[in-house]
Amino acid sequence: MFVPKSEIITKLSANVPRYTSYPTAPNFSPDLGPQLVEKMHASIDNGGALSIYIHIPYCDRLCWFCGCHTKQTKSYIPISYYVETLLEEIELHRKALAHSPEVAHIHFGGGSPSMLKSEDFNELSKKLRTSFRVTEKTEISVEIDPNDMSDDMLVGLQKIGITRASIGVQDFDPDVQEAINRPQTFEQTRDLIEELRSINISSINVDALYGLPRQDMNRLNNTLEKVISLSPDRVAMFGYAHVPWLKKHQNMINDQELPNIEQRHQQADFADQFLTSSGLQKIGIDHYATPEDSLTKALNEGTLHRNFQGYTTDQCNNLLGLGASSINQYDGGFIQNTVPTKQYKAQISEGKFAANRGYELTQDDRIRGYVIERLMCDFSFNFDDVAIKFGDTGTPIIETAKSVVLQDSDDLCWIGNGKFNVSADKRAFTRIVASKFDAYLSKQNSKFSKPI
Ligand SMILES: C[S@@+](CC[C@H](N)C(=O)[O-])C[C@H]1O[C@@H](n2cnc3c(N)ncnc32)[C@H](O)[C@@H]1O
Ligand code: SF4
Predict the structure, then answer these.
(1) Structural domains of the chain sorted by starting position, each given as residue range(s) with its CATH number in brackets
(2) 253: helix, coil or strand?
(3) CA 13 to ligand 1 center in whole angstroms
(4) 12, 115, 6: which is closest to 60 by C-alpha?
(5) 296-340 pLDDT per residue, tens
């Protein structure tokens, strides 16, 4: 991949969203939320299969880099109460639905779901299975912090039929780990993956980061060599999002130790070359997968999607978000649950849904959301597809595409063969290109992270 000149990198380093939804969560309105829940249930009742996301907002230590909704706890008591609340929340949804929908995917995310005791995994699984139609085809995935590894956790994962695990690595270098408060040896990570494979959790994703304090090419190279030696099916190679104005604990990271924007570019580029030359296929802006993996197949078939969990093969129109801060997605819009766990628990225990903020999609949002998703997945969108999907209402976005190309002095994009395309050597700037189709960005761009 061609590394753009430093001036271009600096010029294009504006803060932009990661586009895991459009509009993005900061645009959800505090005036909407509970009112949309009924519409969401109607959409689930009328829709096909459902996907479920369960958020566990607890960790036993806080990594300084972390951008997730989580908090530290040394005690299991708050987690026990939280699981009870999740069970009540599932029951509220079960009662509100006319039918029991088939479930395509269940994802336990966090925070660290790997902190859950096996009995709690079991209770949640039982409740999901008695409330919805979980079948043999249902894919069940979980995010695991290797520091939580225990026999009890492995028993829990095996019992509930986990099919895919995502392992947080970040970086294996002890000096980098010290700077981010994330001690984790290669050996414990390797042992965990071996244990997971021995209990038939055969699909393994590894999360790694570039742009971390004290990271340099040599350290990144060593980490990636170790990552590849684990034979992961997927690797997520995220750029560290340094947003201390949103995540106060990131102030523990010494700004002076962070790579500058040009070094970040070089690291992203190096990781990209390393992972692709190791036989992995690049998926979207920051994922890599083996040629046999379902993400690669979806990319090749043009059915790759992007949702709040990142790149996915999930085709469901409805995503039920359970737990504090979780986002529900339905045909007509989005609903985010209350973020503070105390308030979330209070709402559910009063027998109310925890819906806090929401958004109802307009036709313009759907069209912009469609082209942004295609750009993030395929680096292009096809004008005929827009016309087939949206008819005449799609015409303005094609005009927008033409004017984006006209105003583009950095050769980021071009139009040809009936498609709007991100230039092959500028794919690192895809978030910037996507942002040109975002009607809301100018109102709140400073809240986001660097595009690379
Ligand atoms: C919920 S966390 C991981 C699960 C588990 N708690 C762990 O740390 O292993 C999901 C992933 O988000 C990524 N992540 C967290 N904070 C980030 C940040 N500030 N910038 C970029 N990626 C981040 C990390 O790679 C992390 O593995
Ligand atoms: S990175 Fe994972 S373990 Fe670390 S604080 Fe965030 S969610 Fe918890």
Answers:
(1) 1-15+363-442 (1.10.10.920), 16-322 (3.80.30.20)
(2) coil
(3) 22
(4) 115
(5) 999 999 999 999 889 999 889 899 999 999 999 999 999 999 999
